[in-house]
Amino acid sequence: MNLNVQGYLSLILHAHLPYVRHADRDDYMEERWFFEAMTETYLPLLQMFDRLHQDNVPFRLTVSLSPPLLAMMEDSLMIERYEAYLTQLIQLATLEQVRNQDQPEFAQLAAMYHARWTELFTYYRDCDCNVISKFRLYQDLGYIDIMTCSATHAFLPFMKHRESMKAQILVGVLEYERHFGQKPKGIWLPECAYTSELSTVLKECGIQYFIVDQHGLEHATPKPARGLSAPIMTVDGIHAFARDPESSRQVWSSHEGYPGDPDYREYYRDIGYDLGWNDAEEWDYIKPYVLKNGARINTGMKYFRISGKNEDKAPYVPDWARHKASMHADHFLLCREQQIANLQSSNDRKPLIVSPYDAELFGHWWYEGPLWIEALFRNSRNQQGTFAFITPGDYLKEYPISDTVDLPFCSWGRNGYGEVWLQQKNDWVYRHLHMAEDRLLHTLQQQRDHLWGHTNVAERILHQAARELMLAQSSDWAFIIDAQTVPTYAAARTQRHLAQFHQLLEMIDHQVYDVELLQRLEEQNACLPTVSYHMYMPETSLHPHLLSTTYGRETLTSMRHKKVLMLAWEFPPLVVGGLAKAVFDLSRYLVTQGIEVHVITREVQGSPAYEILNQIHVHRVTVLQSITPIDFMDWVFQLNLAISDYAVLLLESGHRFDFIHAHDWLVHYAAKDLKEFAGIPLIATIHATEHGRNHGIIEQDIQRHIHQLETELTTIADQVIVCSHSMVQEIQNLFSTPASKISMIPNGVELSSKLHSQQAHDLAIHRLRYAQPDEKIVFYIGRLVYEKGIQVLIEALPSIHAAVPKTRIIIAGTGPMKQALQDLTARKELDAFVTFTGFIHDDERNLLLQMADVCVFPSLYEPFGIVALEAMQSGTPVVVSDTGGLAEIIDHGTDGYKALPGHVESLAWHVTEVLLHPEIAEGMAKNALNKVEQRYDWKSIAASTKKVYEGVITK
């Protein structure tokens, strides 16, 4: 984070629509809600992200995407219908240009719509009709944070049973992981509705924060000392961020909000309603573009600006509206500056303004809304640094602890409680919903001793019953009844899902299974595949046989007795690169998670063929020796034969493994053979790719062969683990691996204790072995290979010397490029200032990390960069290349510097900045240490890996 800003602004867009997909018909008005939101909100937001990214304009905001919305975005039927919808819009715009040829201002607007909708159609096709992957891309790139929501946007406080609340949240968590490849940190509680019972449920589901209305904090006990300008914590340590009323009013208010400006487009004047009332020819013209039954709908063809309250509206002028959006953005930012200045004077930490809105406001209701958001980030006022745009998660990194209060029941609905969703028109809903909850829990309780004997059909029936109940629980139906927009539809949806729920449980009760009906219901509501009836079952009530079943992010059984067969070509004491240490650390922490780990690796002279090392069962195999030298690929094949033969002996001697975990392509053959032989899931960790190591140049036969083996390994694996978001993209692009099959789990480091005074004194003495007291030490450790970029660091030393003459580079490690690097040093006449240590042991490495003035890792390709973490946890400032995993570890200027990859002057400048400004370097080093402690400890990484293991059981 920028240390100079006075406060923060968090812009949050809640994107949600009820599940309005209808398999039987394509002419439901409600289904068009989705098409209109895609056209006017979701695609324009993504295009805005593209423009900002392409223009290198920094932006940061939060988007919540609800599971029903995500379900419709990925649904093939909805994709097909949406393309047809866009095609029809383009056709209408073409006709409108002809119809309005005598009204130039309207003809120009029709041409504008034609160009706009054609552009969106092309954009949608260019995205492969997969907008979810675009949102994921911008989260992976660090521009947005995505929050989850409950399964069907249910009003959680009005649920009768805790199990129902938890099931709704678990599905939200699971659907998020399925789409975005990581666990959600935040959740948008539907309608911002909170009740105290949710606190422990959120904690159990791994949620860190949520959003509430100001009403909640204003009535909290005790009253929060910082008011609305900082989050609070519930008794379970879950953070609640309150909506700021001042910034909300400026956008939401129908009286003073920006969207009511006369220059903006009028939403309520559309030719779908304007044409054909008294003219049969006009009606024949517009009839194909409204519903088949003749019901009027919005076509999207709107020609007027707001311009006044009477019916005599003036034509819309896009340039005026764009200009007004920019002016309003500037005004909004000015108001936030003044607000933060006022808050800062009475605060002990940087104040945060939280501005949450329905995403559909921007573009759908307020046509210019996306332009306004874009103007916020492009505005010069935003670049001056008075405040910064951040996400709630960012704020918690800076201030992880908040005041603990008792937060009361609240929502962001009318008057702050629940009257929108519970009043005379819709109160009948809850009696039926509560009866359904009772029945489901009662049925599961009655069936618990028989569940393990259920057929696959019975399992599907129970899953679908849970899904129907969740769809009936959607808060949208009660909201629509309150608003009286389409109350008949909303009531019918509630009744239909409840009726289907009871039909399904009747099958279970009478053990008469109507498979045709079941299949029809599954096709009608083809959404939320992670829904499971197991979510409603208390763990302690299950029959022992069900202890092999998993649900949500939790398992119905301890993994205490699960065994993993780990395959790795290097393992301590044999350490060639970072893989050996990563496998060792992961394995020993998996043991603490109750996993029995057996590692099969190659023999090492002086080490036993079998030993238990840190409770890890280590098996070292002998590779068949050849009288004549063999090439590398033949040696790899022989290694795999030895691993396979040994593993088969283990299996035949009584060992029963639950998983195979293969590390990199060198163990591909053995992994493939053992998966087929044992019939158990295979997890593959790809630590790096041949394509990446060679910067995309794969010309030699051996390189192509390795690339093919990597492709096959990712194909046969049940799940692929990578260590950074950049590697996620690399694996998807190189091997066409689906996103749902990839898990991103970073590597970690062992946290070290701080030096006491005697150790610090000894370190100063030890430093004299490498440098004079007045010399600055720049330290690099790692493999001496081209992709690590050490040559760039050596090339940068003369520029560093120009600013800091007494600077020494220490290069630790070995590799095939060692002689070339020494030759480069000699040619540059830098021998007196560069020390090559060769291989060093861990203790020496740790001392050098701590005694260095700056650690530099100038990689040209780096899937992760664990050495950077080791430097960060040593309390030493770091400079890295802005590439791969390194780029994701470091927040530039906050906990380190990122130089342009391969750019000598960029690297020299950033190293010089660290050496010349020790106060800045110290601050970054402190932030870096905090980050390592919070994000990269092996315990949490092992727990995440265990979740991957659990997940493959259910596939």
- What integer is the average pLDDT? 89
CATH topology of the largest domain: 7-stranded beta/alpha barrel
Strand elements, count: 26
Q: How would a textbook summarize the main sheet?
A: 10 strands, mixed
Q: In what range is the share of β-strand residues?
A: 5-15%
**Model regions low in confidence, pLDDT < 50 over at least 5 residues:** 540-560, 753-758
Binding site for substrate: 243, 260, 412, 476
Family: Belongs to the glycosyl hydrolase 57 family.
Organism: Paenibacillus selenitireducens
Domain Glycosyltransferase subfamily 4-like N-terminal: 576-752
Descriptive terms for the model:
Glyco_hydro_57/38_cen_sf; ten-stranded mixed β-sheet; alpha/beta; immunoglobulin/albumin-binding domain-like; 34 helices; Rossmann fold; 955 residues; 7-stranded beta/alpha barrel; Branching_enz_MT3115-like; carbohydrate metabolism; eight-stranded mixed β-sheet
Q: What can be said about this structure in brief?
A:
With 955 residues, the chain is α/β, with parallel strands linked by helices.
Give a verbal description of the structure.
The chain is α/β, with parallel strands linked by helices. It folds into 4 domains: 7-267 and 302-416, 7-stranded beta/alpha barrel; 428-554, immunoglobulin/albumin-binding domain-like, CATH 1.20.1430.10; 572-744, Glycogen Phosphorylase B (Rossmann fold, 3-Layer(aba) Sandwich), CATH 3.40.50; 757-936, Rossmann fold, CATH 3.40.50. It has 34 helices and 26 strands. Strands 1, 2, 3, 4, 5, 6, 7, 8, 9 and 10 form a 10-stranded mixed beta sheet that branches. α16 packs antiparallel against α18, α20 (578-592) crosses α34 and α27 (790-803) packs across α32. Residues 576-752 form the Glycosyltransferase subfamily 4-like N-terminal domain. Belongs to the glycosyl hydrolase 57 family. One of its GO terms (molecular function) is 1,4-alpha-glucan branching enzyme activity. It comes from Paenibacillus selenitireducens.
